[in-house]
Amino acid sequence: MSVDWRQRFADLRERRPDLSDRVCRRLLMDLQRQGLVDLDAIDDLAVALKLGGTRPVHDPNRPKPQLSSESRLALYELALEYAERHMSPEKIAATILQVEKRMLAHESARLAEDPDTPLPVLREAIHEFLNFAPGEVLAPREDVIGTRAALVRRLLTDQLDFISVAKRFIRVREFAEVLDHIILTDSRSGRLGGKAAGLILADAILKKAQRRGRLNTDYKVPTSYFLPSIGILEFIEYNGLEELINVKYKTPDEVRNEYPLVERLFKSGAFPPTIHKGLEEMLYQIGEVPLVVRSSSLLEDRIGHAFSGKYKSLFIPNRGPLEMRLASLEDAIAEVYASLFHPDPIEYRRERGLIDFQEQMGILIQEVVGMEAGGMLFPVFAGVAFSRCEMRWSPRIRHTDGMARLVLGLGTRAVDRTVADYPVLVALEQPGLRSVQQPDEVFRYSQSDVDVVDIRESQFETLPLADFMQRVGRKIPNMNRIF
Predict the structure, then answer these.
(1) Residue 375: left (phi > 0), alpha (psi -120 to 50), or beta?
(2) Using CB atoms within 10 A as the burial measure, which of 24, 115, 246, 416 is most buried?
(3) DSSP code per residue over 149-198
(4) Residue in 344, 378, 365, 372 with CA at minimum distance from that of residue 462
(5) SS (H, E, C) 117-154
(6) Mean pLDDT throughout 64-87?
(7) What is the pTM of this model?
(8) Nearest to 23, CA basis, from 108, 83, 110, 69
């Protein structure tokens, strides 16, 4: 059954005359590239362009004959005639579809590049691009990459090293999923922050490895929602806390002494109505599952600046009436916001010449992943990994081997160092090479407390290892790998 490309073209010409012109240009270029027409040698083309029956000899030092708008239309009609003569109906129909698909890609990229584009408008454009003629036509690779790069710049970062990597891995479809999970603010600007950007990129890299058969295992990214970095500025303005923005220029002692008051001011503040409504809708969608509220500042997890453990991540049980859950969530976000003004990250920025950067704090809200046992929710293994191993406990370990810090329970103890508690250190290239050997050292440099979400009490709790084991018994899988 042949494709009725003329009906499809007539429909396009009625809806978008500019795109019908693009179709004709595309057909002419395809015909010329295949050697099926020569635009400078076709006699009837000269007639169609109303240049007379005989083409005049062209003087290379003079402009070519001027073409009128009527001549352009005649040229386009001629393109359709030659296409019908030399190309299959399926090929012409595919060209029509691809022109419209390209237009949607260009429109998506244009909206992403414009900082004044509301996120709902951008989200609608991305979905329209993805849902147009699925399985029938693909946008050209260069258009897809351009759209990806524009979305990286708009949502994630303007850091060129990151963009050059991210545009190769994060698909437009994955950006659509991110846009579906963004909590709106009053402002149209604001990025998702470094931690969110790293999560999105890592997920995209692993998905591509799976598609190419290089990763033969399953993994799961927790359900995630994103509050853009501009949210903290709206929170500060809404609560009249603008004088806190320049706290970073005070002396370290002043910053440290004033931080308890700063934290109280944030935790007693209210959220702007738009953010309040967005958080409420998010809680309604996600249901009563424990959540972790994670910092995702613009500087965090950037190339060259990890900020590991400098800002807060807080766990909340998210159980009970919606109003109570919302109050608990907003309190946690406010406390994470306040950690932007903590003396430790301010000193970290000062040491690295970043003090003048207008740091903003995005928020990453995720479902807590783990198992339930003994009235608690916790992951069996959790931790943090680094691409470089800066603390080598053996000459067999190289800086480039990478390192992980692993704990039983929630991963807070792998990030935040405590006085008498130690994670397990693992060189990623040589995981069997232990950092301590003697039994007394193994006992001393081991984990003694476990962080969990206590479901019964609806709170985050730290338990001594012995008490934890009494509650869970032998329900932990792979116990022989822990003890």
Answers:
(1) left
(2) 24
(3) HHHHHHHT---HHHHHHHHHH--HHHHHHHHHTBPP-SSS-----HHHHH
(4) 378
(5) CCHHHHHHHHHHHHHCCCCCCCCCHHHHHHHHHHHHHH
(6) 69
(7) 0.83
(8) 83
